Amino acid sequence: MKPLSICEIAKTIGAQYSGPDFLVDEICTDTRKLVPGCLFVALSGDHFDGHNYIAQALEAGAALAVSHRPDDNPRILQVADTRQALLDIAGYYRKIIAPKVAAVTGSVGKTTTKEMTACVLERKFKTLKTPANLNNEVGLSQTLFMLEADHQAAMLELGVDGPGQMPPMSMAAAPDLSILTGIGVAHLANYKNREGIREEKLHIRDGMPDGGLLLINADNDLLKDFRDDRLRVLRYGLDDPKCEVKANALQENYGNTQFVISLGSEKYSAEIPAIGRHNVLNALAAFATGISFGVDPIEAIYALKDYRPEGMRQKTVKHSGFTFIEDCYNASPDSVQAALATLGGMTGGGKKIAVLSDMLELGNTEREDHAQIGAFAAGCKIDLLLCTGTLSAEYAAGGQRAGLDARHYQDQEALLAAIKEIAKPGDTLWFKASRGMKLEQVINRLYQEL
Q1: N-terminal to C-terminal alpha carbon distance within the chain
Q2: Which range has the worst mean pLDDT, 134-148, 176-190, 373-387?
Q3: What is the pLDDT of residue 187?
Q4: Local confidence band at 422 (pLDDT 50, 70, 90 cut-offs)
């Protein structure tokens, strides 16, 4: 991190400071990772309060601390909200480094789009991307502090799970270009309806400059007709022929998808090491971002081919004659439907088996949502649905009513035993669940025991 003036920091966060000016090159929020000479920002959460550790931080070598509790200690900068203060410092630092910034939000596909886009941007720029899943207010701040003087671009993922979170994040990120991947029902428990989610996500525009570029997934029903008088809007998709960036001629194989990208009158043959229409949409957003930032189209195509799925996001693994698709990082009705449709469209001699566990944070419609997914699975040309989890019983019930062989198991041990009995070499098993269900434990056991 490039050193910052403490006087400028105090001014940025609206805190009174009358001491001598000096430089800080670390902003810390965790005393366990404290760096001597840093600025310690005390954050409060549901299960912790960093204000209780301010004295410890100062004793351990923090130069100053930021607090929203009244305190006469001259080494403490008082603000109204320390979380907002952290974002304000991060936004100030982002403007000092001044890279090209692209940001992505949406109910599904954020991380994959971030990863694909970073691959494309790295063909021309030294690029910082949001690490792992640091996509909330604190994670965004931590990411921006990772910017170095020679970074030329940043690809930021902005995630929200409640109203009012996006505006301050967008102001800190100040994206030159933003991507909206879609509006689904993730975190619906915290919003009135999908329109409420759409309103929140669209606040990603708040920090954008006049004339900035907004990339819209036109295949999404709540985004396809969106227009903006202040920003340029570019639409990408597969279904609407009027999209400025579109894909067709999709050919899916195990582990990769080939397609043709149309950009105006130009056409480019592309390939990604991932399957599913949803991943093609992610690739279109990455391609369009790269072109908009000046990446050569052919270099963007090469970059997409070099992309590799991160973590448990549709990672294809061949093991003992089976094809496993690890997709256990997260789950929502939209992403589970996309997974089931993709599995159903795969070709091969063995059975196509969906292995599912609960989708979390869906609110009052959670049981209905699971039942509808079960019914949807029945129309996806899969052979079998196996599931575990309290809510997943509704998967099985909905699938059974629609005529699918759908089976629910009391716990992961029972599910594991069933898979070992039912699955045979040549079969494809797609594992999908919310991260909190830890369905990857079943996969890891299968790798050991098959």
Answers
A1: 47
A2: 176-190
A3: 57
A4: very high
CA dist., res. 143 & res. 145, Å (int): 5
Tokens of 191: 């919003």
Q: Would you say 183 and 223 are in contact if contact means Cβ atoms under 8 Å apart? A: yes
- Give me the DSSP letters along 169-202: HHHHH--SEEEE-----TTGGGSSSHHHHHHHHG
Q: Which helix (H) or strand (E) holds 282?
A: helix 277-292
Dig out the tokens for 214 from the structure.
């907004």
Distance of CA 445 to the CA centre of its chain: 27
Distances, alpha carbon 227 to alpha carbons 100, 177, 222, 241, 414, in Å: 23, 15, 12, 17, 51
Nearest of 327, 308, 300, 282 to residue 439 by alpha carbon: 327
Cα of 288 vs its chain's centroid, Å: 18
Token reading at 404: 């699918």
Q: How far is CA 319 from the centre of its chain?
A: 28
Q: What is the DSSP string of 91-155?
A: HHHHHHH--EEEEEE-SS-HHHHHHHHHHHHTTTS-EEE--TT--SHHHHHHHHTT--TT--EEE
DSSP 381: T
Average pLDDT of the chain, as a whole number:
93
Alpha-carbon distances of 70 from 39, 60, 66, 270, rounded to whole Å: 18, 21, 11, 58
Position of tokens 């430089």? Answer: 23
Strand order in the sheet with 76-78: 27-28, 39-41, 64-67, 76-78
Give the integer Cα–Cα distance in Å for 324 and 212: 41
Query: Which among 385, 335, 439, 416 is positioned nearest to 108, based on CA atoms?
Result: 335
pLDDT above 90 for 133:
no
Q: What angle do CA 116, 120, 124 make, to 5 degrees?
A: 155
Of 419, 399, 400, the residue nearest 409 (C-alpha): 419
Nearest to 382 by CA among 310, 425, 430, 423: 430
Q: Are 260 and 284 in contact (CB under 8 A)?
A: no
Sorted by sequence, the CB contacts under 8 Å of residue 334 that are 6+ apart come out as 107, 108, 182, 184, 185, 186
- Reference 387, options 401, 403, 399; nearest CA is 399
Q: How far apart are CA 136 and CA 155, in angstroms?
A: 14
On whether the CB atoms of residues 274 and 307 are closer than 8 A, the answer is yes
Angle at 132 between CA 165 and CA 220, to 5 degrees: 55
